[in-house]
User: What shape does this take?
Amino acid sequence: MEKAYHIPVLLNEVINGLKIKPNGVYLDLTLGGAGHSGEIAKKLSNGILIGFDKDLEAISESTKKLSKTIKISTDGLPRQGEALLVNKDFKLAPEILKSLGIERVDGILIDLGVSSHQIDTPSRGFSFKTDGILDMRMDQSQSLTAKELVNNLSEEQLRKIFWEFGEEEFAGKIANKIVQERQKASIETTQKLNEIVESCLPKKVVFSRGGASKKVFQALRIAVNGELENLKETLENLIEMLKSGGRICVISFHSLEDRIVKTVFKEKSLGCVCPPSFPKCVCNHIPSIKVITKKPIVASEKELEINSRSSSAKLRIAEKI
Assistant: This one.
């Protein structure tokens, strides 16, 4: 049996959370292998599906999969009953959609994880479990790679990345060791970096976290792809594009992302934001969304058995007022 390009996480929860209308306009801003989009498309009759992904391989795979269910736009224009796939970073979505004449949408999905295909392809350099060149680019047309960062950043810059983006408690020790090792020879592969990180951590820590390099590889991936840059602003802009009653579903895979999503949802759902000491409201702040998930939805035991990578997934849902 052919291996799936990507196994979508929390699939049923996302589809139920979006409350899909057959004639609605829906955005999948992180297409991957169109696992989620494939199910969205099945529920559309005369609606519009627009998908974004900066990985050209993902666009190609999604085109093949979605074409079995819905007509694919070939001229870059969104039409009813069709899917438009855009090879761009989802952070550009608000301005691109407005240029296409789309001001409001019925539903938005953002899955902030790395696709199974990217992780399982050694040449992409995302995984410390297989050996490959230190790459980690989601958009392979960009020049910056993980190899460039590891071999050129200062010890302090590396320490900061590992701590801020990976919450790695041994960040300083790992950064120091990397600088020492690269003076002997350039650090080029995932296996070499993994060996360096493992040498810096106590064995009990290595086994308890499911791999010594988990946090370091996460941090480098975020830095290479600018994953947290402007995420808060992008979420705020996307929420403004929702129609009344429209839903936004966001899946995050680590605390840094989830914290941003939680903060945006909270700020947008509040009424008065004046300090408690004020005798009356002067801010005139009006809530724009209702948070549907007071706590994030996580994978069921059944899903965890099928897809262990869903273990860190958290889904938050909000509805436009």
